[in-house]
Amino acid sequence: MIHSLFLINSSGDIFLEKHWKSVVSRSVCDYFFEAQERATEAENVPPVIPTPHHYLLSVYRHKIFFVAVIQTEVPPLFVIEFLHRVVDTFQDYFGYSNIVSGSTNVGDQLPTGQLSVVPWRRTGVKYTNNEAYFDVIEEIDAIIDKSGSTITAEIQGVIDACVKLTGMPDLTLSFMNPRLLDDVSFHPCVRFKRWESERILSFIPPDGNFRLLSYHVSAQNLVAIPVYVKHNISFRDSSSLGRFEITVGPKQTMGKTIEGVIVTSQMPKGVLNMSLTPSQGTHTFDPVTKMLSWDIGKINPQKLPSLKGTMSLQAGASKPDENPTINLQFKIQQLAISGLKVNRLDMYGEKYKPFKGIKYMTKAGKFQVRT
Amino acid sequence: MSAAPAYSEDKGGSAGPGEPEYGHDPASGGIFSSDYKRHDDLKEMLDTNKDSLKLEAMKRIVAMIARGKNASDLFPAVVKNVACKNIEDPNQLIRASALRVLSSIRVPIIVPIMMLAIKEAASDMSPYVRKTAAHAIPKLYSLDSDQKDQLIEVIEKLLADKTTLVAGSVVMAFEEVCPERIDLIHKNYRKLCNLLIDVEEWGQVVIISMLTRYARTQFLSPTQNESLLEENPEKAFYGSEEDEAKGAGSEEAAATTLPARKPYVMDPDHRLLLRNTKPLLQSRSAAVVMAVAQLYFHLAPKAEVGVIAKALVRLLRSHSEVQYVVLQNVATMSIKRRGMFEPYLKSFYIRSTDPTQIKILKLEVLTNLANETNIPTVLREFQTYIRSMDKDFVAATIQAIGRCATNIGRVRDTCLNGLVQLLSNRDELVVAESVVVIKKLLQMQPAQHGEIIKHLAKLTDNIQVPMARASILWLIGEYCEHVPRIAPDVLRKMAKSFTAEEDIVKLQVINLAAKLYLTNSKQTKLLTQYVLSLAKYDQNYDIRDRARFTRQLIVPSEQGGALSRHAKKLFLAPKPAPVLESSFKDRDHFQLGSLSHLLNAKATGYQELPDWPEEAPDPSVRNVEVPEWTKCSNREKRKEKEKPFYSDSEGESGPTESADSDPETESESDSKSSSESGSGESSSESDNEDQDEDEEKGRGSESEQSEEEGEKRKMKKKKVPEGQGEGSSSDEGSDSSSSSSESEMTSESEEEQVEPASWRKKTPPSGKSASAAKEVSLLDLEDFTTPSVQPVSSPTVVSTSLAADLEGLTLTDASLVPSLLSPVSGVGRQELLHRVAGEGLAVDYAFSRQPFSGDPHMVSVHIYFSNSSDASIKGLHVGTPKLPAGISIQEFPEIESLAPGESATAVMGINFCDSTQAANFQLCTQTRQFYVSIQPPVGELMAPVFMSENEFKKEQGKLMGMNEITEKLTLPDTCRSDHIVVQKVTATANLGRVPCGTSDEYRFAGRTLTSGSLVLLTLDARPAGTAQLTVNSEKMVIGTMLVKDVIQALTQ
Fold this sequence. Notes:
The complex is a heterodimer.
Chain A: E1 2-8, E2 14-19, H1 29-39, E3 48-50, E4 55-61, E5 64-70, H2 76-94, E6 131-144, E7 150-164, E8 170-175, E9 181-186, H3 192-198, E10 200-203, E11 208-217, E12 227-234, E13 241-250, E14 259-266, E15 271-278, E16 282-286, E17 291-297, E18 306-313, E19 326-333, E20 342-348, E21 355-369
Parallel strand pairs in A: 6-21
Antiparallel strand pairs in A: 1-2, 1-5, 3-4, 4-5, 6-7, 7-11, 8-10, 8-20, 9-11, 12-13, 13-18, 14-17, 14-19, 15-18, 16-17, 19-21
Chain B: H1 4-11, H2 33-47, H3 51-66, H4 75-87, H5 92-104, H6 111-122, H7 127-143, H8 148-159, H9 164-177, H10 183-186, H11 189-195, H12 201-218, H13 227-230, H14 233-246, H15 250-257, H16 268-277, H17 286-299, H18 302-305, H19 307-315, H20 320-336, H21 338-341, H22 356-369, H23 375-386, H24 391-407, H25 412-422, H26 428-442, H27 450-459, H28 466-478, H29 486-497, H30 503-519, H31 521-536, H32 541-554, H33 567-571, H34 595-599, H35 629-642, H36 646-650, H37 667-698, H38 703-719, H39 722-725, H40 731-752, H41 764-778, H42 781-785, H43 795-809, H44 811-820, E1 830-833, E2 841-851, E3 859-867, E4 873-882, E5 888-890, E6 895-898, E7 903-911, E8 919-924, E9 929-934, E10 942-944, H45 949-958, E11 964-970, H46 978-988, E12 992-994, E13 1001-1008, E14 1014-1021, E15 1026-1033, H47 1036-1051
Helix pairs in contact in B: 1-5, 2-3, 4-5, 5-6, 5-7, 6-7, 6-8, 7-8, 7-9, 8-9, 9-12, 11-16, 11-43, 12-17, 17-19, 20-22, 22-24, 23-24, 24-25, 24-26, 25-26, 26-28, 27-28, 28-30, 29-30, 29-31, 30-31, 30-32, 31-32, 37-40, 37-44, 37-46, 41-43, 41-44, 43-44, 46-47
């Protein structure tokens, strides 16, 4: 299995290493650096790199490479999944930003009740306020083509839970329309057969935050696309100026407001600079990475936000082959775009009455508009 | 001490104070003899029983270290005292930590101590400590591989462990230490399969991977009948649909289509593995999903592999590293099983934000999935990709277009035109890649493409990428006859720039020159000589060699010439077109999901995935003795508590069982057995007893055998699980009924077997239903109603021990058994041939309600022969039957001889085609023929179906109107208790009880054997004795008759 682990930051320093068997020299990471150089971008570093005596399996998260050194055959996903879980755990302890430095949330006492009959829940949990919150979060992945028609669109959802309940509660969560869920994956606490036979989520929850369920909404249902983007981006062969104009507007929003809208776009290399005026929000253009980002905020249907202006192009260079694709982020509160609705949540096995809450949210996943 | 860091960290909080820093002693090396002596007495002090002496010794050692003396040879003695002491701590966490510390000290001298500690921990009370012991095994093994034999013993012991906590860890140890000892798995195979869902995620991956290998050595290939198709991938793909159509009865269908082969029958253990891993496709862990996917890919029949596609596509939403690995595997799978991923084509569409390596893999998959129907959409996608800013990706896209063009003839011209348009692209890389691909495409059909070649020839002026230039030159040379005027001109230009060209281009210039010289020597003789002269003095020896070689061949010299006569043949021989194929082709000889597969190279420690065996090894090796119940009860109790809670759903029979019972307490299993099995038991109990009796009578002459059986039965009763025992006294009845109704079946299958002689054989009904219980909840009903496609000889044995396994595992299962146990012979034995009419041969028959092995549509009929004449009857068999349309008979094997006074039984199957028409046939002996007929009561034409209340209601909703028959009746006083009602109904019709929320309602469900139409029966009993009987069935005739029969039974 994993022989050693190296943590490498974005500037290429090995800032932490851990060896489980014998010490493997740091020089093994040179192979990794080589691959990193070849890949130019961090995300293009192959997750599996063979070296003469070892195999390097890595994951990249929070701008840190977690490089595991392996000596013998092992399913690569086994290691990759493990490393991701390690990072998740770090995240739980140290928070998102604090992995490298800062305070820890490590307690002074050893945890107790670990050898519980239910492996994912410790025994003897006690709360004065018993509460169970569920967030139904759906993400729309879509590719929209030039003319505004949908090439692919699908909805992926998760139900994240924050459960703080005393004792060993046994919960059941049922949906009004469970048939919507086409493909599901569960936290190990969910009783699979109950789901198979009755489409009910029945489980003894872990204590605290966890992801109860991820699901995919069946492909037969047409996906409502809540926003549209009107764009007019043109380069001319002779001129050193290009026109740029985009407008974002709401489409099928079920009467809700669209918030947190951010438009990003990777401009072609030939673009030197952009001079743009937004009708709303703020925008930035990084001339080095050629990344345009426009933070819109809320969309007011009466006054659609737009971004207009010109691009200055490299003189003499021919016009780029491809127009940039536009990536969209947005959020819609209190709406699950698939129409999924939780019917009820019941608790068995404990006497008290818990406080229950369910929140819905729709977000853009990988939402892309080709221009 | 290289292990120092690991060691000192592991030591962490658990180890005692003053525990060894010895290993680090910086001053090691200065050895004085006096030190040795002193060490000896220190060792002695440490070995004594007195704590004070030990303490003193430790103090002195610490002092030594403080002064920088080497005390490392005292290390084992200290470890023994400190760590080993903790190994006996009453707290299991501390015991486990102590063992972990001990096993993390990688110093050879402590090997014996470690070995002892592991052995001890392996039989610890606490499963957590046993798990830690399993973890320590690979560590010790890597420290000293000579311990292998001893470690294998420990592994063997731990493999037998029944807790989920240990299973994953011990299999890991097995994989590291002795993966070749597959024999250790046999006895634990079924247990591992059944525990799997409750094992923690990491353990699941390891177990699944190991079981994949195991299955490859122990079972037969489920695709052996399809292998003919597989040889031709194209055909296989189209064939797969028809395979899918075969679906449910694939075995059966395969058997009929290929009569020459022995029909393939899947080993029940093989099926067990597939069934128990399937739910894990829903795991949140990508590693587990991948493990199951590869298991299905390598082990499942073709029609079933499809289920993994959806789960794999889901993983594409995960982190990019996960995507990378999954896509690699999908790419390999999509070559072999294209149909599987086709519905998910759009999930592989590429986003501009994907990392390049992901883009390229997706492209690979898209190319593999492209076919005649979806190629327009795929090409349209590709068109967008070509305009991407990511040039590596564009190049890969062009390659992909080339591959689509070669694979799909219809779009070849479209692709070619598209590629030609790309030739005017501004990006040179794009052009170059296009040229290379065009070259390959043109090679397939050069004649029609003179124009394109001309176009390419013009490009030589502009394009600089060597590979592209070389490709163009090769094309012109190869097809110079199609461009007779341009070719010499190209050569002229190339000759001019020859010295400045790259090596591959130079080689192609020589090539072109040679070909032109051979076809058009008038125009090109001088040019060729010029080029060859330039090449002769080139810096590169390859080019000089080539020039010399070419010159000898094409320019006839004085002495040579033997070859030059054939020069034209050599240079202008028709060359086969290149095959553009995926780099993932044939990668599946590596186990999917493995590191080796990903790298396409064998990694260290990779275990080859064996080929399927030609002949199945003996399946009985997996049979397990049922554990002695008394000895086990203690353990079981603990297990019940430990039982992680998934498994409670394992025993879940009817969904009405509410989740409000806390699964970890015993209350659930209690409530279940009282509510459900209660009814089931009572149904089986009553008429069995009388039936039993009369069987006993009827069989009179077989008394010897039945006595034996009686004994066996008694033995078995002892083993009846508590869950059942405590519930009701009636279980005895049901128990014996199962064994008695089974005894006939086994008795004649016994004849084929080598007397397996164990009571285990007598339990099949419970075995079947227990395994069925699992089946039902996991798979669909089809599986349950047709479990009969099994080999005639082995199934009883196998399923028996399967049951035994299950009994050992969960109590809930045991309590389930009676409720599912349908075989209550509704109608007792009936006469088929009277003793007098048969001239001494008396024949009776009974409907056994067992599924008929061989054909699930047949009703199995037990025939009892007895010879009351004084001569032996020979050659008993079924003569040519005269049957109404649709009805068919599976004859029983000929009974060679029946001695006077002896009796025999046989089973035959009759497909009544869902009608109550009589099956007429002849019963022949060597001398006589008797005309007999069997007419089934309508209730025997069906088999019970297991469904939940909700399903029942749903199905009932579909069968309204014409399909519903309702009658009112009054129940006599004698027939008001649950118990009797249920018993009467199930005696009349072979239906299964459906759990029901209200107390006055009874529901039963079944399917007709031939058409598989549902038969749903509801009895709504009102307090005053009035009742309403409703039957819902598509088969209205059957429904009507059933209503009549049931009312008769109830009101009598």
